[in-house]
């Protein structure tokens, strides 16, 4: 199965749009998330926000911290806490790689997006990144604006 074909089956629930702007993402990992039933139902409605969240490794386990999954209205007393820490399911080699990278200077585990894969399982795409400096962010904006302008010029030339 090619990656293009694989991505078409994904239903993206929440994206961290600022992540690639604020961090140099060096490597991506796909992680499962340990969720309760009310959290899954809330995700199916698309009510999640990972903009202010991050991941960390504690005692050999990875956790998603500060992600907001809205409480599910019909769950009444069986509802979940909106910002509770959620365990991430990763292979031991991946966790070791993340721990080693976090011990290096400036590396962070950044959540990129939550989605349902082709088997309808909730997954979290996390990236191992290094924070950008202000001048790097300016360069990113400059490149993005130039690419947009190039597209306009080429579009006008073809008309």
Could you explain how this protein is built, in words?
There is one protein chain. The protein has 159 residues and is α+β, with helices and mostly antiparallel strands. The chain has a single domain, classed as Small protein B (Small Protein B, Chain: A), CATH 2.40.280.10. It has helices at residues 3-8, 19-22, 37-44, 92-103, 134-158; strands spanning 11-15, 23-33, 48-49, 54-58, 61-65, 68-69, 86-89, 107-116, 122-131. The strands form 2 sheets. Strands 1-8-9-2-7-5-4 form a 7-stranded antiparallel β-sheet. A two-stranded antiparallel sheet has the order 3-6. The chain is globular, with a radius of gyration of 18 Å. Mean pLDDT is 83; it is low at 1-6.
Task: Supply database-style keywords.
single chain; 159 residues; alpha+beta; Small Protein B, Chain: A; two-stranded antiparallel sheet; 9 strands; globular; disordered N terminus
Summarize this structure briefly.
With 159 residues, the protein is an alpha+beta fold. The chain contains 5 helices and 9 strands, in the order αβαβαβββββαββα.
Q: How are the SSEs ordered, and which strands pair?
A:
Layout: H1 3-8, E1 11-15, H2 19-22, E2 23-33, H3 37-44, E3 48-49, E4 54-58, E5 61-65, E6 68-69, E7 86-89, H4 92-103, E8 107-116, E9 122-131, H5 134-158
The share of residues in helices is: 25-40%
Shape: globular
Please report the number of helical segments: 5
- Give the SSE string: HEHEHEEEEEHEEH
- Low-confidence runs: 1-6
Structural Rg? 18 Å
């Amino acid at each position: 199965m090619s990656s293009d074909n694989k991505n078409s089956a994904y239903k993206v629930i929440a994206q961290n749009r600022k992540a690639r702007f604020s961090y140099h993402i060096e490597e991506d990992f796909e992680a499962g998330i340990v969720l309760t039933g009310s959290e899954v139902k809330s995700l199916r409605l698309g009510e999640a926000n990972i903009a202010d969240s991050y991941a960390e490794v504690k005692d050999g386990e990875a956790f998603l911290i500060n992600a907001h999954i809205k409480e599910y209205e019909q769950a009444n007393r069986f509802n979940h806490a909106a910002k509770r820490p959620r365990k991430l399911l990763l292979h031991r080699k991946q966790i070791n790689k993340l721990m080693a990278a976090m011990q290096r200077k400036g590396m962070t585990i950044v959540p990129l997006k939550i989605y349902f894969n082709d088997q309808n399982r909730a997954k979290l795409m996390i990236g191992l990144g290094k924070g950008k400096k202000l001048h790097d962010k300016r360069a990113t904006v400059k490149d993005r604006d130039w690419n947009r302008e190039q597209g306009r010029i080429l579009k006008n030339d073809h008309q």
